[in-house]
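Reader question, answered in our methods column.
A reader sent in the components of a multi-part assembly and asked whether the whole thing could be modeled at once rather than chain by chain. We filled in our standard form and ran it. Here is what they sent:
COMPLEX SIZE: two components
ENTRIES:
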Amino acid sequence: AQSVTQPDIHITVSEGASLELRCNYSYGATPYLFWYVQSPGQGLQLLLKYFSGDTLVQGIKGFEAEFKRSQSSFNLRKPSVHWSDAAEYFCAGGLTGTASKLTFGTGTRLQVTL
Amino acid sequence: DTGVSQDPRHKITKRGQNVTFRCDPISEHNRLYWYRQTLGQGPEFLTYFQNEAQLEKSRLLSDRFSAERPKGSFSTLEIQRTEQGDSAMYLCASSATATSWDRGQRNTIYFGEGSWLTVV
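And here is the structure of the entire assembly that came back:
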């Protein structure tokens, strides 16, 4: 079965520190992969996506993610976190060629301390 | 604003009542999706349309749920005889598959702000 796993439920980092949020996927073929961010009570904002090609993907707000086939991972990174980055982050995957639906991880809540 | 629009943003209803949510996708997006998100969980797929056709429905979509997209533009999600377990945020999303779109934007799924449902 297709699945996306986010091992960390909650992460706390200091403002200015680097960040890495983990995402692992399980698909029969290479999936489309996405990272979304959600502020409390709000919808999902797309940060970045991987379809194919370059395995290092740049997104908005200074985020990047690296697709590693050998590790079935798509970890999200940011070199220097800002207090406004505090939110819930979701990794999601869809089948290559259709992207008819996404399977989401359970999310990682990021807290930023000043 | 040319993003995905949902209405109402919040709805409180009594158990047993019917509710309807509306979604207006990004203009010219031919695919429209509905997801449900409960507290502390990631969104779960409910159903999706390509133009007017409803192509897939999740097992989560019980007989009390019905979704339509009559003209291939906006969509409605109706829940009949609501139950407390229906309390959740209902998210709409859209994407474009047409080759006329920028390859980088094709199949990219954009979400709306969601419609919160509380059943009391």
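What stands out: The interface with chain B takes residues 32, 34, 36, 41-46, 49, 51, 90, 92, 94, 98-107 of chain A (CB under 8 Å). Chain A has a mean pLDDT of 92.
Send us your own complexes using the same form.
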